[in-house]
TrEMBL record:
Pfam family, one: GntR
Full protein name: Pyruvate dehydrogenase complex repressor
Composition-biased stretches (Basic and acidic residues): 241-263
All residue ranges annotated as the HTH gntR-type domain in the record: 9-77
InterPro entries with a match to the protein in the record: GntR_C, TF_FadR/GntR_C, Tscrpt_reg_HTH_GntR, WH-like_DNA-bd_sf, WH_DNA-bd_sf
GO molecular function, one term: DNA binding
Region called Disordered, residue ranges: 240-263
The entry's keywords: DNA-binding, Repressor, Transcription, Transcription regulation
Stored CDD domains: WHTH_GntR
Function of the protein: Transcriptional repressor for the pyruvate dehydrogenase complex genes aceEF and lpd.
Length: 263
């Protein structure tokens, strides 16, 4: 019986798999420059030509971008699911903000659940750092800008997604990061204007979520994350109802009602 040849697995294929894993798990992020060929060769224990071949394969597949004289980078397109024009369109539509919060309700509850179950010591350290940054913004009440607070809030939720160790959840959150950041800034401004106690409520919610994940209480983490988004949804709806009431009152105020009665 004639036996077929067994195709030998090339070293470059092994390197491709390693780099793919690093991109999937977030070790290599969109736009990040790869280490030099020599450093990668030493890390993987292979020759530089094998590294070069692996990089060329990933460039051909659109995962990496090679810049003449400037090194190799993870493709920026991997980090954004929404173009800038689409982001602007969504920002200007209240109904789109509702849709985003509905999406976050499911997505972030699951992220919190898996983060509480799967977080490593390194994940918890990174989550602690993101939480401390957010707490610092809260502590600098009146001094931290809404943009700073919104970015810190989004980074905290991104750190939870990273700790979930679910590739799809992580890259979905990553792809939505700019949208989440901008939406959070918008929501924060409206909520703070509506109720003075909003800041304290958000501080307590994030603290409870952080504690549940750090202590491995997965079911509590999922519930608290869902309650947090529900709170923001409720505040957004209340703000919009307040705006509608104001608009109705302004329409009822006729120009001739302010005139002095004729004698």
């Amino acid at each position: 019986m004639e036996m077929g040849h067994i195709r030998q697995h090339r070293l470059s294929d092994n390197i491709v798999e390693e780099l793919e894993t690093m991109i999937l798990e977030g070790t290599l992020q969109p736009g990040q420059r790869l280490p030099a060929e020599r450093a990668l060769a030493e890390r993987f224990g292979v020759s530089r030509p094998s590294v070069r071949e692996a990089v060329q394969k990933l460039v051909a597949r659109g995962l990496l971008i090679s810049r003449q004289g400037g090194g190799n980078y993870v493709s920026d397109s991997l980090g954004s699911s929404f173009s800038d024009p689409l982001l602007a369109l969504i920002e200007g539509r209240p109904e789109a903000q509702h849709d985003l919060l509905e999406f976050r309700h499911t997505l972030e509850a699951d992220c919190a659940y898996y983060a509480a179950r799967r977080a490593t010591d390194l994940d918890r350290a990174q989550l602690q750092s993101a939480f401390d940054e957010l707490q610092d913004c809260y502590a600098r009440e009146g001094k931290a800008t809404r943009a700073e607070e919104g970015a810190a809030d989004a980074r905290f939720h991104l750190a939870i997604a990273e700790a979930s160790h679910n590739f799809v959840l992580l890259h979905t959150i990553r792809g939505l990061f700019d949208l989440l950041k901008r939406s959070t800034v918008t929501n924060i401004g409206g909520m703070y204007e509506l109720r003075s106690e909003t800041r304290h409520s958000l501080v307590a919610q994030h603290q409870a979520l952080f504690d549940a994940i750090m202590e491995g209480r997965a079911d509590d983490a999922r519930r608290i994350a869902g309650e947090h988004i529900s709170y923001v949804q409720g505040m957004l709806e209340e703000r919009e109802e307040e705006s509608r009431r104001l608009a109705r009152a302004q329409r009822r105020e006729r120009p001739d009602s302010r005139r002095t009665p004729a004698s």
